Amino acid sequence: MTAPVCLISGVGPGTGSALARKFAEGGYRVALLARNEERLAALEKELPSAKAYRCDVSDPEQIERVASAVERDLGNPSVVVHNAVGGAFGTFREIDPAILNRNFQINTMGLLYLARRFVPAMVDAGKGAIVATGNTSALRGKPGFAGFAPTKAAQRILAEAMARELGPQGVHVAYVIVDAMIDLEWTRKRWPDRPDQFCIKPRAIADEIWHLVHQDRSAWSFNVELRPFGENW
After folding, report:
1. What are the angstrom distances between the C-alpha of 155 and each of 75, 84, 148?
2. d(Cα 187, Cα 80) in Å, to the nearest integer?
3. Which of 11, 60, 144, 230 is the most exposed place for a label (fewest CB within 10 A)?
4. pTM for this entry
5. 19: buried, middle or exposed (CB in 10 Å: 19+, 13-18, 0-12)?
6. What span, in angstroms and rounded, lies between the C-alpha atoms of 74 and 194?
7. How many CB atoms lie within 10 A of CB 98?
């Protein structure tokens, strides 16, 4: 097996699926990780070079089991994209503390577990890339995002600590902040009055992540912010 391997967590109908299609088109074997087996099966059928694995990234035992299966079936991933996300709306007085903890386990600990499992092979090879997808909550704590923003801020800082350690070892770590409403069926229904110029296309996110992991190592990016042309920031 000579084709490179890309592992993507949180393969849903938006960014995750767009990433899977982008890397499959680019010649990668793609490991698809998510909790929704039905969605995974449909995408696996669509992409001959992809293989689906049911996985809750907040559980290190599941990650270990799936990682071993990916290495056996496809090979060592040279690209890992942590796209799985746990989110919730509410102020700090409204949220269930258990929900905040659950989101932390998915967003921050999931990144930690995946990186600790796959980084050693990347370091041995002297190359590789790890990308975490974040959003504006990683930079600011708005009142209604108290159950979510703290976990994304922690995720970004963890990614930065990893980038500073792993960069000199040949492994590129990047954090992508999506400052936009992602153009999906459920987001359109939730915010029906949002104009098109405020929505970001999942394929466009995937294109930028593809660019990130293929940057020349003399010019690696870490913090990357993406927003539609109509977004007021």
Report:
1. 27, 12, 11
2. 26
3. 230
4. 0.94
5. buried
6. 41
7. 8
Output the pLDDT for position 70: 98
Amino acid making up residue 62: Q
User: Considering only CA atoms, which of 121, 41, 5, 105 is closest in space to residue 53?
Assistant: 41
Provide the token pair at 1: 């097996």
3-state secondary structure of 193: coil
pLDDT at 198: 79
* 171-201 CB burial, b ≥16 within 10 A, e <16: bbbbbbbbbbbbbbeeeeeeeeeeeeebbbb
Show the low-confidence residues of the chain (pLDDT under 50).
Answer: none
**CA angle at residue 106 from 101 to 111, to 5 degrees?**
125
Contact 175, 224 (CB under 8 A): yes
Which residue segments constitute the domains of the chain, with CATH numbers given? 5-226 (3.40.50.720)
What are the beta bridge partners of residue 171?
A: 128
Are 107 and 86 in contact by the 8 Å Cβ rule? The answer is: yes
Token digits of residue 158: 């963890």
Helical ranges in the chain per DSSP H = 15-25, 37-46, 60-73, 97-104, 110-125, 149-166, 185-190, 202-213
Give me the pLDDT at residue 30, please. Answer: 98
